[in-house]
Amino acid sequence: QEDVFKKIVSHCKEYGYVFPSSDIYDGLGAVYDYGQMGVELKNNIKKYWWDSMVLLHENIVGIDSAIFMHPTIWKASGHVDAFNDPLIDNKDSKKRYRADVLIEDQLAKYDEKINKEVEKARKRFGESFDEAQFRATNGRVLENQNKRDALHERFAKALNDGNLEELRQIILDEEIVCPISGTRNWTEVRQFNLMFSTEMGSTSDGAMKVYLRPETAQGIFVNYLNVQKTGRMKIPFGIAQIGKAFRNEIVARQFIFRMREFEQMEMQFFVRPGEELTWFQSWKEQRLKWHKALGLGDTKYRYHDHDKLAHYANAATDIEFEMPFGFKEVEGIHSRTDFDLSQHEKYCGKNIKYFDPELNESYTPYVVETSIGVDRMFLSIVCSSYCEEKLENGETRVVLRLPAALAPVKLAVMPLVKKDGLPEKAREIINQLKFQFNCQYDEKDSIGKRYRRQDAIGTPYCVTVDHQTLEDNCVTIRHRDSMEQERVSISELSNIIADKVSI
Ligand code: ATP
User: Fold this and answer.
1) Confidence band of 1 (pLDDT split at 50, 70, 90)
2) How far is the CA of 257 from the centre of ligand 1 (A)?
3) How far is the CA of 373 from the centre of ligand 1 (A)?
4) Residue with more model confidence, 160 or 144
5) How confident is the model at residue 262 (pLDDT cuts 50, 70, 90)?
6) What is the reported pTM?
7) From CA 115, how far away is CA 489, in angstroms rounded?
8) Residue to substitute in 376, 378, 379, 381 for testing ligand 1 pocket (most ligand atoms within 8 angstroms of CB)
9) First-last CA distance in the chain
10) Which residue ranges form the domains of the chain, and what is each CATH number?
11) Residues whose CB falls within 8 Å of the CB of residue 240, separated by 6 or more in sequence, listed in order
């Protein structure tokens, strides 16, 4: 699986999806740039989300708030005091690690050992293998399972108590070594704030320390009354936003899964106190449906309900997606109570309550939020679309089976040869369709090579113009996934493609 993931990362670079940031300067850790294909896919993802939230819901509107915000906002939200990761340094390699991630990796190692035993036994016993029975009775499995359970319990308690010394003790007791130096020579565990800060204004007039927002949500909270009043919104209503967020992540791994500059699509839904759990359930279901509608495969998703809740939440779940490196969070759905709005009311000293005309009373709304990372969604789509296929003639083709609605290029139009008026005819077709779909003109190399190139970027349709076209106004349309080809009239193209590229 790791090999596949490496291939996906280099495929993304080779075909203009994702480049390391500052590439000619050898990159910048955990920062990436989207190329000519990547930006189209990303825009399509954002549109798919925006349309489903803002266009399809009468009671949800969008905003676009600034990245810089008043610094007190981050005090009120709790980020200044509590948006921390526990870090530990290895004294020999001088490398810094997240203590919690080192322990999570250790948990994964126990899982790996258990799975290895299970797989070995499955091979040995074949058809008659009873996995549950084996797990419940095999000595080695039980031993590792017990160690894993004990570690999990100890780890959860240490996190819950915010006990940094205990996190360090766990690392020592588990004999975890630094992957670089191979030693266990660790410092103590310290908290490290994830927010980036900078200065606003020049130093002579007293510069103010400001933060790059670590989430877009606060821009919605501080604007909720502006939007409610000017948009005459009535509870329940939602505000949606897409925008950049910044976190000084220490463990920068897994490509665009965890970045220091990334993009979020968040929606805060304001409800009457007491109704939040019903709305939480409803959004939890709606969001999973939205993901599944893309057709990447229903079994690739699962919920991960949180049993340990942040102090401000009364329910929380993640939607996880099966990446090549395991099931990982792509979206969080949280019932955040009235925590954020109450905090802002306290810190700004103004009344920001909502007046409910039906109840004839004022109150602080409760909030259910859905928060998804654009980049993680991008990664989930690319990973599940990447496919190496053995063809009948023995060749391998690499194809990105992107959902047609999200594909950067919807159709490539190709003249069979570069003469006899075929290029002109091809351009004529593009001129007819380019306002409706993103089209690409391609005349270089053999037709087979051109098909492969379009497969690799995930173009769902290739349209070939040949000599016959000049007589009958028909073209060959080739379908990316089945590689089937059919002859259709040029006038039908618009409908055929429109039908397939909508969700
Ligand atoms: P994680 O536990 O993976 O760090 P989180 O629980 O801190 O994520 P949230 O604060 O709930 O994440 O943010 C909501 C969404 O924003 C996540 O589900 C994820 O898709 C995205 N996200 C968060 N941090 C990053 C990051 N560093 N890079 C890319 N996307 C991110």
Assistant:
1) low
2) 9
3) 6
4) 144
5) very high
6) 0.91
7) 55
8) 376
9) 30
10) 409-500 (3.40.50.800)
11) 50, 53, 54, 60, 61, 62, 63, 265, 266, 267
